Structure formats: C-alpha cells, structure tokens
Please model this.
Amino acid sequence: MRIVFWVGFWVFLADQASKYLVVHFMSLRELGRIDVFPPYLNLRMAWNRGVNFGLFSQDSDAMRWVLIALALVISGTVLWWVYRDRPGRAGLVGAGLLVGGALGNVMDRLLYGAVADFLNMSCCGIANPYAFNVADMAVFLGAIGLVFFAGREKAP
Model:
C-alpha cells in the first residue's frame, strides 16, 4: 500500500503545483490562453464544473458537493479494493494514479468551485476544443492500469 500512497501523493502534488503555476503564476486565469507550441500544445483556461468533457455541469453548489462526494467515495472504494485483493505492482501504481488524480480534482472544487483545466493539444489538422489537466491524465491512466493489471499477480 506504500506504492499507492506515494504514487498518489506525487500525482496530487504535481497536479496542484502545475495548476498553481499556470493559473496564478502565469496568469492564465486572466489571459485565457497561451500558445506554447501551436497547434500541438496550448494552454487554454477552462473551468469544468461537471465531469469529463463538462458532462453534468451545472452552476449549482449542490452539484459541486455531489461531485466531491462521488470522487471521495470512488477513491475510498479503490483503496479498499486494492487493500483487500492486493494486485501486483502495476495495479498498485494504477490505484495511486487514480486516487491522486481524483483528490487533485477534489481540491480544485474545494478551492475554486470547479476543476481548473488548462492543457489543450491538437494534431494533424484536427482542432481539439477540450482542455484537461495532470489529474485528468492520472485518473485515465490509473483506470486503464487497474483494468489491465488488477488481479493478475499478487503483491508480496
């Protein structure tokens, strides 16, 4: 379980540090957009009040607290699951990625009332209208890791 803790800790820290750097230090909150390496990497400020791609986004305080509670319940369930079934190292890393990313987005909802998304990537003539953050990448990779690596080999 140490692996889950440390992976989650570093993901959470990297997520919050990147958001602080971009939102406050680089003033993306006021600027709205910064072209870094167009069109491949751009910074676009987006406040996500819903879940992935803004689904279920409402400007209500109640939905904010529902999404915080949901993320905490999912994180707790994943921790209980990996504690009980002890997947191999890759499964534990996946759990840490998922929990660290989920808690990073929970912190945003507590601090800002919405999740701060800022990374925008496009390629090959396709303009991507969506933004994401480090926590979103960690949740995605963690979920994939749990699907493919949980239950395979047992951790010592």
Notes: The chain has one domain: 6-149. The longest strand covers residues 41-48. The chain has a mean pLDDT of 90. Residues 6-149 form one domain.
